[in-house]
Amino acid sequence: MEFRLNEDQRAWQMIARKFADEEISKISVSRDAIEDPRATFDWEIIRKGSRLGLRTLGIPKEWGGPGVDFTTQAIVMAELARGDSSIAKTFSQCWKWCHLIMDRCTPEQQARYLKPFMADDAFVLGGGITEPNAGSDNRLPPATAPKSGLRLSAKHDGDAWLLNGEKCFIANANIAKLIFVFTRTNPDVAVRSGTTIFAVQMPHEGVRVGKVFNKGGWRFYQNAELIFENARVSQSDMMGKLDGAMSHHGGKNAKFAELEYSANAVGVCDAAVEMAMLHARREKRGGRVLAEQQLVQLQLSQMHMMTEALRSFMLRVATESDDEGNEHFAHSHFLMNFATEAIQRVCNLNQEIHGYADGRHRAGADKLVRDAIIWTHIAGDAVQKMKAVSFLLK
Description:
Blueprint: H1 7-32, H2 43-51, H3 70-83, H4 85-104, H5 107-119, E1 125-128, E2 153-157, E3 160-171, E4 178-184, E5 195-201, E6 207-212, E7 223-234, E8 238-239, H6 252-282, E9 284-285, E10 288-289, H7 294-322, H8 329-354, H9 359-373, H10 382-386, H11 390-393
Helix pairs in contact: 1-3, 3-4, 3-6, 3-7, 4-6, 6-7, 6-8, 6-9, 7-8, 8-9
């Protein structure tokens, strides 16, 4: 397949690249080094990106957003992630849930959620799915196992619902102003048949933030516990149909997740390649410039090869995602699997090339390795991801 960016796509690419080079890159390593996981976050970088349209990239034009396609979103993600993967994810996390709003919400709900979101540069979104005892099994759960999957309960109480339970590793949980919470409204059936989404505006009575996780990678990106204790949520904040949260296969939200992570991985690989090339050209080992040594040349070649293969695969899936008639679920899952392999290999090779470099240069290489580890468990573990072949067997 041949990929050519149109004028609009190229313009967004340049906006994201300039922002990554001039704003994100200069704070990436320093924010990562902060010990307190809450303090790694920087509202100023979010506000600056928002003013460029990067926070609202997933919003259609009729609601005041750019209305860009998946290919543009993927290109922008890759450029932002070249500056810092976790900052890029903070922006794209908002796009993901904007897609959910457009897919599932009534016009009244869309107005209620999107108007304040569009008006506030510090309005970020979050989504609550993972629980202490329910992670990967929410994605491909056993069809006949009602006890598998999430358990946070939502029980009808008059004209509202009472939410009780706990969520963990929830993106933006401690900073989001609106969180989409996946609840178990029917515990007697499989999770795919008994789950409902509620939009919870934060802060919210009966909802408190617990631990903010001190992660090895993606340290800027906030992940925290959410504890629900008789949290009362209005019926008007139910998104879509009762028990229908996981039975909805169409729409942009369903096509976004694997593409999002894979485009981010492209940016990380680009950063690793650039870092390795620069280091190899200016540093010596054994009296010879690294770039002249055969082992280093082979390592750099493999890094370039893996990165370009991932970029091509990502652009293919992005193009397929923009085709409304294309159901590409197997390809998107395979893309995520390949992204996981590619980002690990490329970042590890970059670290090897740096060897025992001085702390300043080594810190950047080490950070990329720690960020890349996220791909081994994000959006399901490796075994769950390989089950994607089931889409081809149906």
